[in-house]
Structure formats: C-alpha cells, structure tokens
Amino acid sequence: MYEVFTQLKYYSRKIVFLLNARGKFDYTVNRQVFLRGYKMTAVSKHINVLCLCVLPGVLAFGPTVYGGQPLKVFILAGQSNMEGHGEMSPITTQGTLEYIVANDPATYGHLKNRQGWIVRDDVYIWYGRMNASGGNAGLVQGGLSAGYGRYDHTIGPELQFGNVMGDFYDAGVFILKFASGGKSLGVDFRPPSSGWPKTPAFTGDKGYYYQKMIDTVNDFKANPQSYYPAYNAADGYEIAGFGWHQGWNDRVTSAFAAEYEANMENFIKDVRADLGIPNLPFAIATTFGFYGGMEWPGMV
User: Fold this and answer.
1) For residues 238 and 243, what is the distance between their CA atoms, to the nearest angstrom?
2) Helices and strands, counts by H and E, the chain
C-alpha cells in the first residue's frame, strides 16, 4: 500500500514520509522506537497531508494537528505537590531528573536527547504560577517538556502524566495546571458544599482558591484559543479528567484532617457541578510519611 518516500530524523523522533495509494503524503511519528538508517517499525501517529514543501536544509514543523478529533483537556490542581519542586539538575546528584535519565535511560530516555529536553508537539501545557498570596508569579506555556514545575529548573507530575496521555491519545492533549503551595482543602480549596461564610474575595477566605480555579477553567472554556493557540473550534474539546495532588496542610491540622474525606467528596461533587461535567473522572494522589517515614495521626 505504501512506498517509502523519504525518512528524516527529527530530534529523537523518527519521522517517515509515505506516499499512499492516492498519491498523497502521509507521515508517521514513532515516539518510542528510535532508529538509525531506514528500517521502519511500528508507528504511533498517522496524519494525512495534501502537500509537502521542503527547502534545502530547512524542515519546519508546527503543533501536531488532529483533524476531526476533540482536544483532550486535563486539569491538574493542588498545592506544592502539584506545583512541582523536583530538581532537574545536577546530573551528579541522586534523584534529580538529569541523574535518573542518565542512569535509567530505558525508562526515562524519552525525556531527553542530544539536543536537550524533548518538547512534545502533541501535548501543550498552560500554567499560571502563583506566589504565596495568590498573585501572579509568571505564566508559562508551550509544548510539554521539563521545566514546568514551580520554577524553570523543576518538574511536577505534569511531565510524565502528559507523556503518558500524549502516547495514549490519537488527539491533541492540553494540560491546564492550577497549583499554589501551602494551601489546604479545609480553607483555601474548600468547596462550596462544605460551607463558605461569605463569597471568597481574598486569599485566606474559605474557598478562595477553589473559586479561582473554577474561574480559570471557565475562562478556558470561553476562550480556549487564548490558552491553546492551535485550538480548532471545528474539532472542539473534551475535559477528560481532573488530577488532584494535595494534602500536607490538612494532614498537619487535626480539624482539617478529620473533615478531609467529607471535603474531598464535596470537592469532587462541586467541581463536576460547576464545570457542568457530571461524570468527570478524578485521580487523587496521596501524600506519605515524611521525616524518616513518620506518620501523622490524621494522615491523609
């Protein structure tokens, strides 16, 4: 069915251009098998293109476009756990991203090549960093790569989560990350069903970060292209899941720990209601013992 027209190595991805039976070009991107030479193995993406123009020595690729498939949107929210404080370097320090990539390339080699940290063209992230009082600490957005943690030199759960989702879906993936360190579910992210004495207006008010998070997601829903520049209104989007990583500020306060289960149940119910997605899937990460494995009585 296919005749191999030409093959190119683009960073760590194998890009193969094929001439199909209708005389149009297809290209496939193999994200997991990195080859040398011209032998082709299994491929993961297929996109039909009407024409291909390559100037000598120049090859330009924009974001991957998946015609006819809705953009898969994931919300990642929480406190410092979700912000991401995993250090990327130095390579000589055990536990850094540089170290684990160098020492376990079979597992983490997909994150980096000789040119540097790989930037995915099918997974896009938007993250408005916040300071301790909820103020703007800098907006970062772009193709998923290392460096989208709390600081440019750190990572969070978004890195591997985005890689897994990008490999799983034959559609574009968008991650909207909303996280601020030192925030509790008992106060800051408190859902409306758990009780607000007043409409939250300032940091420290019950539910302030909950409402700020909902407002951010609703702003995306009203203006998706301002968050995801390659958005195609004809294809639309689907909010496909919600990831939650939080708990420290509740586990160290006995009153918050005692009501955490009820607050979390209300949180899920209220988020689904406020976003108008009754069956929105949730994934909840747990915290664990710190300081030599010490467990707290109200451990979340």
Assistant:
1) 15
2) 9, 14
155-167: average pLDDT: 97
**Contact between 217 and 275 (Cβ < 8 Å):** yes
Asked if residue 81 and residue 34 are part of one domain, the reply reads: no
Question: Of 122, 244, 266, 271, whose CA–CA distance to 178 is shortest?
Answer: 244
Rounded CA separation 287/257 (Å) = 12
Please state the pTM of the whole predicted model: 0.76
Question: For 28, how many CA atoms within 13 A lie in the half-sphere containing its CB?
Answer: 18
**Cis (ω within 30 of 0) for the bond into 197?**
no
Does the structure show a pLDDT above 80 at 206? Answer: yes
CB 154 within 8 A of CB 86: yes
Query: What is the model's pLDDT at position 52?
Result: 27
- What is the amino acid identity at position 197? P
In the three-class reduction of DSSP (H, G, I as helix; E, B as strand; rest coil), residue 218 is classed as helix
* CA dihedral sign of residues 215, 221, 225, 230: positive
Is 113 within 8 Å of 91 (Cβ atoms)?
no
Number of domains in the chain: 2
**pLDDT for 46-58, tens place per residue?**
323 322 222 233 3
User: CATH number for the domain including 217?
Assistant: 3.40.50.1110
What radius of gyration, in Å, describes the C-alpha atoms of the chain? 22
Confidence of residue 164 (pLDDT cuts 50, 70, 90): very high
Q: Residue for token digits 């974001």?
A: 63
126 contacts 141 by C-beta, under 8 angstroms: yes
pLDDT at 45 (0 to 100): 34
What residues make up the domain containing 21? 3-49
Q: Which amino acid is at 262?
A: A
